[in-house]
Design brief:
The chain has helices at about 5-20, 30-35, 35-55, 90-95, 110-120, 140-145, 170-175, 180, 185-195, 210-220, 225-235, 235-245; strands at about 120-130, 130-140, 145-155, 160-165. The chain has about 250 residues and is mainly α.
Length: about 250
């Protein structure tokens, strides 16, 4: 018997059992079990599942969970940047337009803002409104990075609030560094990092002049890898790569 025909027959049998009927002779079955609502509902539910399976020609549809956002899998050149300063959420919306949500999750604002704080371009500042909350504001490094702050009118309350904005320079830098923000390394580096349990206690801390000088010596003179340097500085690979780029040592 064909696969579809067997599925159709199985569906019919379930529906008849849900009605307390013997599928083989269409006679009523006096059974307390089949009279229970829970049993009837379950038989009907399985029947609807079979109906969907029949509608898909008997093939089981495999549901694939979208992977986490990966910068390497999107077309950065297709991201439309703004010449006027925009908020971080607006930049994320432009980046996420390149995401196929069936296969990959969108990039969240918190991921990028956390990286900006770690690199010293923004800082979480405690402010008291009705209660104390954290809000992002600029640092001494913000201007060179292309982050500015301006007043914005809250559409709901009409209140004027300070707002962190990204100039085109900052937008371009973030897009160029998406791999570093997400700490995307090759699989070997990832396995190595996991196995050695690198201490990242300095992650998010501002870089001192002495630490930068040490970084330059390790990378240029000692020819250490980024993973090796990360261990020495108690930082992650993405933070080391970002600092090397800022110093003009790598592209």
């Amino acid at each position: 018997m064909e696969k579809i025909q067997r599925l159709q027959k199985a569906k019919l049998y379930l529906e008849m059992l849900a009605c307390s009927m013997d599928p083989t002779n269409q006679e009523f079955i006096e059974s307390e079990v089949l009279q229970k609502k829970e049993i009837k509902d379950m038989l009907k539910y399985v029947s609807t599942v079979l109906e969907e399976l029949i509608g898909n020609n008997g093939e089981v549809i495999k549901v694939i969970k979208p992977i986490n956002f990966q910068a390497s899998k999107i077309n950065k050149q297709a991201i439309v940047l703004s010449n006027a300063p925009i908020q971080l959420s607006a930049l994320m919306a432009r980046i996420n337009k390149q995401v196929d949500t069936k296969t990959m999750q969108k990039l969240g604002v918190s991921k990028v803002s956390k990286w900006l704080v770690e690199q010293g371009y923004l800082v979480n500042e405690k402010v008291s409104i009705i209660k104390e909350v954290s809000q992002l504001t600029i640092t001494d490094n913000s201007e060179s990075f292309g982050i500015v702050i301006d007043n914005k009118v809250d559409e709901k309350t009409g209140e004027i609030k300070p707002c962190v904005l990204l100039t085109r320079k900052a937008q371009e830098f973030i897009v160029d560094n998406l791999e570093n923000i997400l700490d995307e390394e090759n699989s070997n580096d990832k396995q190595k990092d996991v196995s050695t349990s690198t201490n990242c206690s300095m992650r998010g801390q501002l870089w001192s002049k002495d630490e930068e000088d040490k970084l330059v010596s390790e990378y240029i003179e000692q020819k250490l890898s980024i993973s090796e340097i990360a261990k020495l500085h108690n930082r992650n690979n993405g933070g080391i790569s970002a600092r090397l780029k800022k110093l003009g040592l790598i592209e």
